Amino acid sequence: MIILHIVLLSFFILDKVSMSHRRGNATSTELERTKRSFYCHPGYFVCNSTNICVEQRFICDEYQDCEDGSDEWNCTDLNKDKYYNMLFQKRPDEDRDKMTFKDCKINYTATICQCSGKSLFCENRMLKIVPVNLPRNTKELDLSGNDLKVVNHFNFTSLNLLEILIFNNAGVSELGKKVFHKFLSLRYLYLNGNQLHTIQNGTFLGSSTLRFLYLSYNPIQRLPVGSFLGLGNLEVLFLRHCLLTTIPQNIFKPLKNLKSLCLDENKIESFPNGVFSYLTKLETLSLSRNNLKSIDAKVLEGLWKLNTLYLTSNSLTELKPQNFGNLTSLLTLDLQDNEIHTIDVKAFELLGKLNSLNLKDNTLRHIHAECFVPVKNLQYIYFSSFYSCSLVRHVRVCEPNGDGISSFSHLLDSVVLRVCVWLVAGAACIANASVMVGRALLKETNSVHSFYIKNLSIADFLMSLYLFLIAGHDVAFRGKYIRHDVNWRHSWQCTLAGMLSTLSSEASIFIMTIITADRYMSIVYPLMLRRRTMLFAGTCITASWTAAVIIALLPALNLGYFGDEFYGNNGVCLPLQIHDPFSKGWEYSMLIFCGLNSAAFGFITYAYITMFITISRSKLGLRSSQQHQDRAIAKRFAFIVGTDLICWVPIIIIKFLSISGVRISSQLYAWVAVFMLPINSALNPVLYTLTTQLFKQQLARIVYTWRAGGGGVRVECTPALQELSGISMTSAPRHHHGRWSSSKGNSASLTTSDVRSFQ
Ligand SMILES: *[C@@H]1O[C@H](CO)[C@@H](O)[C@H](O)[C@H]1NC(C)=O
Ligand SMILES: *[C@@H]1O[C@H](CO)[C@@H](O)[C@H](O)[C@H]1NC(C)=O
Ligand SMILES: *[C@@H]1O[C@H](CO)[C@@H](O)[C@H](O)[C@H]1NC(C)=O
Ligand SMILES: *[C@@H]1O[C@H](CO)[C@@H](O)[C@H](O)[C@H]1NC(C)=O
Ligand SMILES: *[C@@H]1O[C@H](CO)[C@@H](O)[C@H](O)[C@H]1NC(C)=O
Ligand SMILES: *[C@@H]1O[C@H](CO)[C@@H](O)[C@H](O)[C@H]1NC(C)=O
Ligand SMILES: *[C@@H]1O[C@H](CO)[C@@H](O)[C@H](O)[C@H]1NC(C)=O
């Protein structure tokens, strides 16, 4: 166990070291020196001051490939920050908490509100009415956190100089007509988090000075057409997280100067045609987190100035020709987290200025490189899988750079991973082969148990074949993986690899469960031992293999349910589906990796614990050796359960996490997929054969025979040697059979080989 940890740790350190080397100077094949008067080949980008062309994947990789470092310039997509800057705009008074109160500059003598400079702060005072007779030169009034309910214009005294009025969470449920018309200089109005169900016609009449209006977090379901009448100078309107389902056609007509409109987190399913057509100055439109199934050119008509459009987290399924129409000023288009599966070749036509395009978290299957030809100025593009980056070679920054396992150039990106695959494959191959050969040659007393172990090593041996297959293709694709990626993932070799790994891991799990059940029966119900015939064992094993073969074969049968990328989901052909947790066939993957395997693991853990308890309770006769023996058995059981735990539980946990929406680090994913899963196959021979008493005895016998010069002198194992090699119990039955009774009081004697079989 400790050794395993040391090995893992050293691999981890090696990995970190190798990462720093991976970003070495680009080699001559990776950099192409061309004259500036020429052009860089597609997929290459010229440095600012030298004539070096740098490949797309070396741009923004945190290593300077250009002498002037210009390949690391412009790496931050400023478009991305704009959204959060918009959502979390500071209120003019945001830093009030830090601000020390200034002297009161207005003639305020009452004690209800706190005065600072020309501001009056009356928040959280449990006010039920708006304070009256406020000084006429007040510039800012904060009434947040009170309980005002219905507010009308006669509740206010006219404050000609008031610029900022804050009513956040003030319990306002109704606003009368022309309610703010007495504030002749009002610029900012905050009404977030109130109980407004609607905004009636003409509410804002007479507030033509208003620039910023915040109505987020109100239970507004419907808005009449005249809600925003009189807001001719409004620049920013927030209606985030209301309960809006529809937007009337002409509602935005008065908002001739609107620049930013946020309708996030509503329940809007569609917009009437031309609803935004009056917003000729609109620059930012955010429709994220609604239920939009489609949006088309007719809806977005007239937005000449629009430069930022957010459609994140909707239900868009396809992009039709000229889907966004004539948005000739558009710079940023965010389509993350939709269900887009088809993109028409002409979908992005007329978006000539587009600079940043986000297509992450969509179910893109077949997109053509031609889609992106019209968007010549695209600088940043985001996909879910790095494979798609090969479609947009003219875009300077494409993310992601890899999926943790593969990258543009290599099937196995990490050097350590590459080495590990060979090591684990070799170890699993040699260990399992020697178990098979060894057990076939040596005569064994417990043939049923040996039969199980032989089958286990066949199953584990298949895993080494899988690893060799992957490692071999990794070598074949070295340096140019992206060119082979699609073909490889859809090839029969990849399907075969996926089937091998599934067959191996499932057969292995089934057989381990059978072995556990067998041991469990013989320890906990020793009277039923007669059942352990070769016929019964053969039936169990045949059933396991059949089940495993069916499980592995089903996805390869071209059933519609699995799609064509069940095994070809990633470069190593594992149907783990961690990065794309809801891709086709995820229920099946979930059933195998979580359902079946955690059930098996649960049973194994339970069985070993029960066995241990039974053993330690029942051995009353043996006193001196008991503790030592208990410890030895406990150690071995803990080792078996522990290795299963470190191999399988991370996979189960990670899979559950990814299903529940947690983003799994791609590094971790790679290690789990290529290392955790197969390592059990390399360890099983150690657990079930190489460290057992029986094996040690056989080995000792051979060594002793050899030492004796082959003179035919067979040296029997001395108890001392057995002591040294682990458990003293096996020497005991020679002198007296241990009588073990089960907890239920039944008793039966165990043969030496029974006990040996699990030691
Ligand atoms: C990269 O190249 C520069 C100059 O071409 C050289 O000075 C530097 O040592 C190289 N770095 C590595 C890691 O090879
Ligand atoms: C980029 O190169 C040009 C000359 O080709 C130079 O004038 C300019 O200063 C460089 N830009 C930076 C930021 O170094
Ligand atoms: C960085 O962006 C600026 C402005 O878009 C552009 O002028 C410049 O050429 C870009 N630099 C590189 C190295 O792409
Ligand atoms: C403040 O109010 C008092 C009486 O209420 C008045 O005498 C005084 O002139 C006022 N000062 C200003 C600056 O308005
Ligand atoms: C507004 O004025 C009416 C009539 O004077 C009064 O009943 C009501 O409580 C006032 N509401 C607020 C919020 O001040
Ligand atoms: C609001 O005004 C529009 C005309 O601007 C009218 O058609 C509509 O019926 C009015 N709605 C209400 C609730 O008064
Ligand atoms: C796009 O809009 C421009 C005006 O900004 C107009 O001249 C042009 O015809 C429109 N193109 C299409 C295809 O609608």
TrEMBL record:
Disordered: annotated segments: 730-759
Domain G-protein coupled receptors family 1 profile: 431-688
SMART domains per record: LDLa, LRR_SD22, LRR_TYP
Gene Ontology molecular function, alphabetical: G protein-coupled peptide receptor activity
Ranges annotated as biased composition (Polar residues): 740-759
CDD domains linked: 7tmA_Relaxin_R, LDLa
Signal peptide: 1-19
One Pfam match: 7tm_1
Chain ranges passing through the membrane: 415-437, 458-476, 496-515, 535-557, 590-616, 637-657, 669-691
Membrane topology (UniProt): Multi-pass membrane protein
GO annotation, biological process: adenylate cyclase-activating G protein-coupled receptor signaling pathway; hormone-mediated signaling pathway
UniProt KW keywords: Cell membrane, Disulfide bond, G-protein coupled receptor, Glycoprotein, Leucine-rich repeat, Membrane, Receptor, Repeat, Signal, Transducer, Transmembrane, Transmembrane helix
PROSITE patterns: G_PROTEIN_RECEP_F1_1, G_PROTEIN_RECEP_F1_2, LDLRA_1, LDLRA_2, LRR
SUPFAM superfamilies registered for this protein in UniProt: Family A G protein-coupled receptor-like (SSF81321), L domain-like (SSF52058), LDL receptor-like module (SSF57424)
First-listed, main subcellular location of the protein, grouped into a coarse class: membrane
Disulfide bonds: 60-75
InterPro entries assigned to the protein according to its UniProt record, in alphabetical order: GPCR_Rhodpsn (IPR000276), GPCR_Rhodpsn_7TM (IPR017452), LDL_receptor-like_sf (IPR036055), LDLR_class-A_CS (IPR023415), LDrepeatLR_classA_rpt (IPR002172), Leu-rich_rpt (IPR001611), Leu-rich_rpt_typical-subtyp (IPR003591), LRR_dom_sf (IPR032675)
GO cellular component, one term: plasma membrane
Name of the protein in its database record: G-protein coupled receptors family 1 profile domain-containing protein
Native species: Oedothorax gibbosus
Top-level taxonomy: Eukaryota, Metazoa, Ecdysozoa, Arthropoda, Chelicerata
